[in-house]
Amino acid sequence: MTDKKVTRIGVLTSGGDAPGMNAAVRAVVRTGIYHGLEVYAVMRGYQGMIENDIVKMESRSVANIIQRGGTILKTARSKEFFTPEGRKKAYENLKSHGINGLIVVGGDGSFNGALKFSEEFDIPCIGLPGTIDKDIAGSDFTIGFDTAVNTAIDAIDKIRDTADAHDRLFIIEVMGRDAGYIALHSGVATGAEHVLIPEHKTDIDEVINSLQEKEKRKKLMNLIVVAEGDEFGGGEQVTKYIKEKLPNADIKITVLGHIQRGGSPTCADRILASRMGYHAVLCLMEGRNNVMVGIVNDQMHYTPLSKAVKAKQQIDEDWFDMIKILAS
Ligand code: ATP
Protein backbone atom coordinates (compact mmCIF):
# COMPACT_ATOMS: atom_id res chain seq x y z
CA MET A 1 0.00 0.00 0.00
CA THR A 2 1.10 3.54 -0.62
CA ASP A 3 -0.42 6.72 0.82
CA LYS A 4 0.56 8.88 -2.17
CA LYS A 5 -2.54 9.97 -4.08
CA VAL A 6 -2.66 9.11 -7.77
CA THR A 7 -3.70 11.97 -10.03
CA ARG A 8 -2.53 10.90 -13.48
CA ILE A 9 -2.52 7.29 -14.55
CA GLY A 10 -1.12 5.43 -17.53
CA VAL A 11 -2.56 2.34 -19.18
CA LEU A 12 -0.80 -0.02 -21.57
CA THR A 13 -1.29 -3.38 -23.22
CA SER A 14 1.75 -5.64 -23.41
CA GLY A 15 2.83 -9.09 -24.63
CA GLY A 16 0.46 -11.06 -26.83
CA ASP A 17 -2.80 -9.34 -27.74
CA ALA A 18 -6.04 -10.81 -26.47
CA PRO A 19 -9.67 -10.05 -27.41
CA GLY A 20 -11.16 -7.91 -24.64
CA MET A 21 -8.09 -5.74 -24.10
CA ASN A 22 -9.98 -2.82 -25.66
CA ALA A 23 -12.88 -3.29 -23.25
CA ALA A 24 -10.37 -3.15 -20.37
CA VAL A 25 -8.76 0.04 -21.71
CA ARG A 26 -12.18 1.62 -22.15
CA ALA A 27 -13.09 0.78 -18.54
CA VAL A 28 -9.80 2.19 -17.20
CA VAL A 29 -10.11 5.44 -19.17
CA ARG A 30 -13.73 6.11 -18.28
CA THR A 31 -13.43 5.12 -14.62
CA GLY A 32 -10.32 7.26 -14.22
CA ILE A 33 -11.92 10.30 -15.84
CA TYR A 34 -15.11 9.83 -13.81
CA HIS A 35 -13.02 10.03 -10.63
CA GLY A 36 -11.23 13.19 -11.77
CA LEU A 37 -7.95 11.54 -12.83
CA GLU A 38 -6.08 12.28 -16.02
CA VAL A 39 -5.59 9.12 -18.06
CA TYR A 40 -2.76 8.54 -20.53
CA ALA A 41 -2.41 5.76 -23.06
CA VAL A 42 1.07 4.32 -23.37
CA MET A 43 1.29 2.97 -26.92
CA ARG A 44 3.05 -0.32 -27.86
CA GLY A 45 3.52 -1.60 -24.33
CA TYR A 46 6.80 -0.98 -22.52
CA GLN A 47 8.49 -0.01 -25.80
CA GLY A 48 6.19 3.00 -26.10
CA MET A 49 7.00 3.90 -22.49
CA ILE A 50 10.70 3.94 -23.39
CA GLU A 51 10.09 5.93 -26.58
CA ASN A 52 7.69 8.37 -24.92
CA ASP A 53 4.81 7.32 -27.16
CA ILE A 54 2.24 8.51 -24.65
CA VAL A 55 -1.06 10.25 -25.40
CA LYS A 56 -3.72 11.80 -23.21
CA MET A 57 -7.07 10.05 -23.38
CA GLU A 58 -10.54 11.53 -23.25
CA SER A 59 -13.75 9.68 -22.63
CA ARG A 60 -14.47 9.81 -26.38
CA SER A 61 -11.05 8.33 -27.21
CA VAL A 62 -12.40 4.92 -26.23
CA ALA A 63 -15.78 5.19 -27.97
CA ASN A 64 -16.77 2.31 -30.22
CA ILE A 65 -14.01 -0.08 -29.11
CA ILE A 66 -15.70 -2.44 -26.63
CA GLN A 67 -16.60 -4.83 -29.46
CA ARG A 68 -13.23 -4.75 -31.21
CA GLY A 69 -10.53 -7.44 -31.01
CA GLY A 70 -6.83 -6.61 -30.85
CA THR A 71 -5.82 -3.51 -28.93
CA ILE A 72 -6.10 0.12 -30.03
CA LEU A 73 -3.05 0.85 -27.86
CA LYS A 74 -1.04 -1.70 -29.90
CA THR A 75 1.18 -4.12 -28.08
CA ALA A 76 4.83 -5.09 -28.26
CA ARG A 77 7.56 -7.11 -26.66
CA SER A 78 10.36 -4.81 -25.52
CA LYS A 79 13.92 -6.11 -25.11
CA GLU A 80 15.03 -2.74 -23.81
CA PHE A 81 12.65 -2.93 -20.86
CA PHE A 82 14.64 -5.91 -19.56
CA THR A 83 17.57 -3.53 -18.96
CA PRO A 84 17.81 -1.07 -16.03
CA GLU A 85 18.65 1.70 -18.54
CA GLY A 86 15.49 0.98 -20.54
CA ARG A 87 13.32 1.03 -17.42
CA LYS A 88 14.93 4.32 -16.27
CA LYS A 89 14.11 5.94 -19.61
CA ALA A 90 10.55 4.68 -19.28
CA TYR A 91 10.31 6.12 -15.77
CA GLU A 92 11.59 9.51 -16.87
CA ASN A 93 9.02 9.63 -19.65
CA LEU A 94 6.18 8.80 -17.27
CA LYS A 95 7.44 11.45 -14.85
CA SER A 96 7.59 14.04 -17.64
CA HIS A 97 3.82 13.56 -18.05
CA GLY A 98 3.28 13.56 -14.27
CA ILE A 99 2.01 9.97 -14.39
CA ASN A 100 2.01 8.47 -10.89
CA GLY A 101 0.14 5.19 -11.36
CA LEU A 102 0.23 2.52 -14.06
CA ILE A 103 -2.16 -0.19 -15.22
CA VAL A 104 -0.66 -3.00 -17.28
CA VAL A 105 -2.86 -5.38 -19.26
CA GLY A 106 -0.83 -8.44 -20.27
CA GLY A 107 0.50 -11.84 -19.37
CA ASP A 108 2.92 -13.04 -16.73
CA GLY A 109 5.93 -11.60 -18.61
CA SER A 110 4.32 -8.17 -18.51
CA PHE A 111 3.69 -8.59 -14.76
CA ASN A 112 7.37 -9.46 -14.27
CA GLY A 113 8.23 -6.21 -15.98
CA ALA A 114 5.70 -4.24 -13.91
CA LEU A 115 6.99 -5.79 -10.70
CA LYS A 116 10.59 -4.88 -11.47
CA PHE A 117 9.57 -1.38 -12.51
CA SER A 118 7.52 -0.59 -9.43
CA GLU A 119 10.20 -2.00 -7.12
CA GLU A 120 12.77 0.32 -8.70
CA PHE A 121 10.64 3.46 -9.01
CA ASP A 122 7.89 5.19 -7.05
CA ILE A 123 5.09 4.36 -9.49
CA PRO A 124 2.51 1.84 -8.26
CA CYS A 125 1.53 -0.78 -10.84
CA ILE A 126 -1.66 -2.77 -11.16
CA GLY A 127 -1.84 -5.79 -13.49
CA LEU A 128 -4.84 -7.10 -15.42
CA PRO A 129 -4.52 -10.64 -16.80
CA GLY A 130 -4.87 -10.26 -20.57
CA THR A 131 -3.94 -13.49 -22.28
CA ILE A 132 -5.81 -16.13 -24.23
CA ASP A 133 -3.77 -18.83 -22.44
CA LYS A 134 -5.48 -18.58 -18.98
CA ASP A 135 -2.18 -19.49 -17.39
CA ILE A 136 -2.13 -17.03 -14.51
CA ALA A 137 -3.01 -17.84 -10.92
CA GLY A 138 -5.30 -15.48 -9.03
CA SER A 139 -8.14 -15.33 -11.53
CA ASP A 140 -10.54 -18.02 -12.70
CA PHE A 141 -10.42 -16.54 -16.20
CA THR A 142 -8.16 -14.20 -18.11
CA ILE A 143 -9.19 -11.58 -20.66
CA GLY A 144 -9.33 -13.21 -24.09
CA PHE A 145 -9.59 -16.85 -23.07
CA ASP A 146 -13.32 -17.20 -23.58
CA THR A 147 -13.17 -15.63 -27.04
CA ALA A 148 -10.24 -17.82 -28.08
CA VAL A 149 -12.04 -20.95 -26.88
CA ASN A 150 -15.20 -19.98 -28.75
CA THR A 151 -13.20 -19.35 -31.91
CA ALA A 152 -11.61 -22.78 -31.53
CA ILE A 153 -15.02 -24.38 -30.93
CA ASP A 154 -16.44 -22.75 -34.04
CA ALA A 155 -13.55 -24.08 -36.14
CA ILE A 156 -13.63 -27.57 -34.61
CA ASP A 157 -17.41 -27.85 -35.16
CA LYS A 158 -16.77 -27.17 -38.85
CA ILE A 159 -13.98 -29.73 -38.93
CA ARG A 160 -16.33 -32.25 -37.32
CA ASP A 161 -18.72 -31.92 -40.28
CA THR A 162 -16.06 -32.89 -42.79
CA ALA A 163 -14.51 -35.49 -40.46
CA ASP A 164 -17.91 -37.11 -40.13
CA ALA A 165 -18.63 -37.00 -43.87
CA HIS A 166 -15.38 -38.82 -44.65
CA ASP A 167 -15.13 -40.98 -41.50
CA ARG A 168 -11.77 -39.44 -40.72
CA LEU A 169 -9.57 -38.98 -37.73
CA PHE A 170 -8.83 -35.29 -37.32
CA ILE A 171 -6.07 -33.94 -35.14
CA ILE A 172 -6.52 -30.29 -34.26
CA GLU A 173 -3.78 -28.24 -32.67
CA VAL A 174 -4.88 -25.25 -30.64
CA MET A 175 -2.90 -22.45 -28.97
CA GLY A 176 -2.09 -21.95 -25.30
CA ARG A 177 1.70 -22.07 -25.27
CA ASP A 178 2.70 -24.16 -22.26
CA ALA A 179 -0.87 -24.22 -20.91
CA GLY A 180 -3.59 -26.61 -22.01
CA TYR A 181 -6.79 -24.77 -21.07
CA ILE A 182 -7.82 -23.79 -24.61
CA ALA A 183 -7.38 -27.43 -25.65
CA LEU A 184 -9.19 -28.75 -22.59
CA HIS A 185 -12.19 -26.44 -22.83
CA SER A 186 -12.56 -26.56 -26.63
CA GLY A 187 -12.02 -30.34 -26.63
CA VAL A 188 -14.73 -30.98 -24.05
CA ALA A 189 -17.12 -28.51 -25.69
CA THR A 190 -16.76 -30.13 -29.12
CA GLY A 191 -17.01 -33.69 -27.84
CA ALA A 192 -13.44 -34.61 -28.79
CA GLU A 193 -12.44 -38.23 -28.21
CA HIS A 194 -9.06 -37.25 -26.78
CA VAL A 195 -7.51 -34.07 -25.43
CA LEU A 196 -3.73 -33.87 -25.09
CA ILE A 197 -2.40 -31.13 -22.82
CA PRO A 198 0.91 -30.43 -21.10
CA GLU A 199 -0.57 -30.54 -17.58
CA HIS A 200 -1.56 -34.18 -17.96
CA LYS A 201 0.66 -37.06 -19.00
CA THR A 202 -0.87 -38.84 -22.00
CA ASP A 203 -0.47 -42.56 -22.49
CA ILE A 204 -0.28 -42.37 -26.30
CA ASP A 205 -0.47 -46.16 -26.65
CA GLU A 206 -3.75 -46.07 -24.77
CA VAL A 207 -4.96 -43.48 -27.32
CA ILE A 208 -3.91 -45.84 -30.15
CA ASN A 209 -5.66 -48.79 -28.47
CA SER A 210 -8.82 -46.79 -28.06
CA LEU A 211 -8.75 -45.76 -31.76
CA GLN A 212 -8.25 -49.40 -32.77
CA GLU A 213 -11.11 -50.48 -30.54
CA LYS A 214 -13.34 -47.78 -32.10
CA GLU A 215 -12.31 -48.91 -35.58
CA LYS A 216 -13.59 -52.40 -34.74
CA ARG A 217 -16.95 -50.85 -33.86
CA LYS A 218 -16.85 -48.87 -37.13
CA LYS A 219 -16.55 -45.57 -35.28
CA LEU A 220 -14.09 -44.00 -37.68
CA MET A 221 -14.80 -40.33 -37.10
CA ASN A 222 -12.63 -39.14 -34.23
CA LEU A 223 -11.38 -35.77 -33.05
CA ILE A 224 -8.17 -35.34 -31.08
CA VAL A 225 -7.49 -31.85 -29.74
CA VAL A 226 -3.82 -31.20 -28.97
CA ALA A 227 -2.39 -28.21 -27.14
CA GLU A 228 0.56 -26.64 -28.93
CA GLY A 229 2.64 -27.08 -25.76
CA ASP A 230 1.78 -30.71 -25.30
CA GLU A 231 4.60 -33.08 -24.29
CA PHE A 232 4.81 -34.53 -27.86
CA GLY A 233 5.54 -31.11 -29.32
CA GLY A 234 2.13 -30.30 -30.82
CA GLY A 235 -0.22 -31.70 -33.45
CA GLU A 236 2.33 -32.53 -36.17
CA GLN A 237 4.28 -34.81 -33.86
CA VAL A 238 1.17 -36.54 -32.56
CA THR A 239 -0.04 -37.07 -36.15
CA LYS A 240 3.31 -38.55 -37.16
CA TYR A 241 3.27 -40.97 -34.23
CA ILE A 242 -0.31 -42.11 -34.82
CA LYS A 243 0.31 -42.54 -38.57
CA GLU A 244 3.22 -44.82 -37.79
CA LYS A 245 1.06 -46.98 -35.53
CA LEU A 246 -2.10 -46.90 -37.66
CA PRO A 247 -0.83 -46.74 -41.26
CA ASN A 248 -4.27 -47.48 -42.76
CA ALA A 249 -6.16 -44.79 -40.89
CA ASP A 250 -7.36 -41.69 -42.77
CA ILE A 251 -5.79 -38.92 -40.70
CA LYS A 252 -5.79 -35.17 -41.27
CA ILE A 253 -4.30 -32.40 -39.20
CA THR A 254 -5.37 -28.78 -38.76
CA VAL A 255 -3.34 -26.19 -36.86
CA LEU A 256 -5.77 -23.43 -35.90
CA GLY A 257 -3.07 -20.81 -35.24
CA HIS A 258 -3.59 -17.08 -34.91
CA ILE A 259 -7.31 -16.96 -35.71
CA GLN A 260 -7.63 -17.80 -32.00
CA ARG A 261 -6.14 -14.44 -31.10
CA GLY A 262 -8.52 -12.28 -33.10
CA GLY A 263 -12.18 -11.45 -33.41
CA SER A 264 -14.79 -9.58 -31.49
CA PRO A 265 -14.65 -10.46 -27.77
CA THR A 266 -17.43 -12.62 -26.34
CA CYS A 267 -19.87 -11.32 -23.75
CA ALA A 268 -17.88 -13.06 -20.99
CA ASP A 269 -14.63 -11.36 -22.04
CA ARG A 270 -16.23 -7.92 -22.35
CA ILE A 271 -17.72 -8.21 -18.86
CA LEU A 272 -14.54 -9.62 -17.34
CA ALA A 273 -12.43 -6.87 -18.91
CA SER A 274 -14.87 -4.12 -17.90
CA ARG A 275 -14.99 -5.29 -14.27
CA MET A 276 -11.23 -5.68 -14.08
CA GLY A 277 -10.51 -2.32 -15.69
CA TYR A 278 -12.98 -0.54 -13.41
CA HIS A 279 -11.49 -2.14 -10.28
CA ALA A 280 -7.90 -1.52 -11.39
CA VAL A 281 -8.51 2.23 -11.17
CA LEU A 282 -10.15 1.85 -7.75
CA CYS A 283 -7.09 -0.14 -6.64
CA LEU A 284 -4.75 2.71 -7.57
CA MET A 285 -7.03 5.22 -5.82
CA GLU A 286 -7.08 3.06 -2.68
CA GLY A 287 -3.26 3.04 -2.63
CA ARG A 288 -2.74 -0.56 -3.68
CA ASN A 289 0.51 -1.39 -5.38
CA ASN A 290 1.90 -4.42 -7.21
CA VAL A 291 -1.28 -6.44 -7.35
CA MET A 292 -3.07 -8.22 -10.14
CA VAL A 293 -6.82 -7.74 -10.29
CA GLY A 294 -8.54 -11.08 -10.77
CA ILE A 295 -11.98 -12.58 -10.34
CA VAL A 296 -12.35 -15.76 -8.31
CA ASN A 297 -15.78 -17.31 -7.74
CA ASP A 298 -17.27 -14.12 -9.21
CA GLN A 299 -15.63 -11.96 -6.53
CA MET A 300 -12.84 -9.46 -7.09
CA HIS A 301 -9.56 -10.97 -5.98
CA TYR A 302 -6.20 -9.25 -5.56
CA THR A 303 -2.99 -11.23 -5.94
CA PRO A 304 0.51 -9.81 -5.40
CA LEU A 305 2.16 -9.58 -8.82
CA SER A 306 4.98 -11.80 -7.54
CA LYS A 307 2.47 -14.64 -6.99
CA ALA A 308 0.51 -14.04 -10.22
CA VAL A 309 3.82 -14.40 -12.00
CA LYS A 310 4.90 -17.70 -10.55
CA ALA A 311 1.87 -19.80 -9.91
CA LYS A 312 -0.04 -21.84 -12.48
CA GLN A 313 -3.54 -23.18 -12.14
CA GLN A 314 -4.10 -26.88 -11.52
CA ILE A 315 -6.16 -29.21 -13.71
CA ASP A 316 -8.05 -31.95 -11.92
CA GLU A 317 -7.65 -35.55 -13.16
CA ASP A 318 -11.40 -35.82 -13.07
CA TRP A 319 -11.59 -33.91 -16.38
CA PHE A 320 -9.88 -36.80 -18.18
CA ASP A 321 -12.12 -39.46 -16.68
CA MET A 322 -15.06 -37.42 -17.93
CA ILE A 323 -13.64 -37.00 -21.46
CA LYS A 324 -13.11 -40.77 -21.70
CA ILE A 325 -16.64 -41.58 -20.57
CA LEU A 326 -18.35 -38.95 -22.71
CA ALA A 327 -16.48 -40.06 -25.82
CA SER A 328 -17.14 -43.77 -25.33
P1 ATP B 1 1.78 -13.39 -23.33
O1 ATP B 1 1.42 -14.33 -22.22
O2 ATP B 1 0.63 -13.11 -24.21
O3 ATP B 1 3.03 -13.75 -24.09
P2 ATP B 1 3.37 -11.74 -21.68
O4 ATP B 1 3.03 -10.51 -20.93
O5 ATP B 1 3.74 -12.94 -20.89
O6 ATP B 1 2.15 -12.01 -22.65
P3 ATP B 1 6.11 -11.37 -22.56
O7 ATP B 1 6.67 -11.22 -23.92
O8 ATP B 1 6.61 -12.48 -21.73
O9 ATP B 1 4.54 -11.41 -22.74
O10 ATP B 1 6.39 -10.01 -21.75
C1 ATP B 1 6.01 -8.76 -22.30
C2 ATP B 1 7.09 -7.74 -22.04
O11 ATP B 1 7.24 -7.53 -20.63
C3 ATP B 1 8.48 -8.12 -22.51
O12 ATP B 1 8.68 -7.91 -23.89
C4 ATP B 1 9.34 -7.18 -21.66
O13 ATP B 1 9.36 -5.90 -22.21
C5 ATP B 1 8.58 -7.16 -20.33
N1 ATP B 1 9.18 -8.11 -19.40
C6 ATP B 1 8.95 -9.42 -19.28
N2 ATP B 1 9.70 -9.98 -18.31
C7 ATP B 1 10.45 -8.98 -17.80
C8 ATP B 1 11.47 -8.91 -16.79
N3 ATP B 1 11.85 -9.97 -16.09
N4 ATP B 1 12.03 -7.70 -16.55
C9 ATP B 1 11.66 -6.62 -17.23
N5 ATP B 1 10.71 -6.63 -18.20
C10 ATP B 1 10.13 -7.78 -18.50
TrEMBL record:
Domain called Phosphofructokinase: residue spans: 8-283
Pfam families registered for this protein in UniProt: PFK
The family this protein is said to belong to: Belongs to the phosphofructokinase type A (PFKA) family. ATP-dependent PFK group I subfamily. Prokaryotic clade 'B1' sub-subfamily.
Binding site for ATP: 16, 77-78, 107-110
Protein name, as recorded: ATP-dependent 6-phosphofructokinase
Compartment list: Cytoplasm
Class of this enzyme: transferase
UniProt-annotated binding residues for Mg(2+): 108
Gene Ontology MF terms in the entry: 6-phosphofructokinase activity
Binding site for substrate: 131-133, 168, 175-177, 228, 252, 258-261
Annotated source species: Pinibacter soli
Gene: pfkA
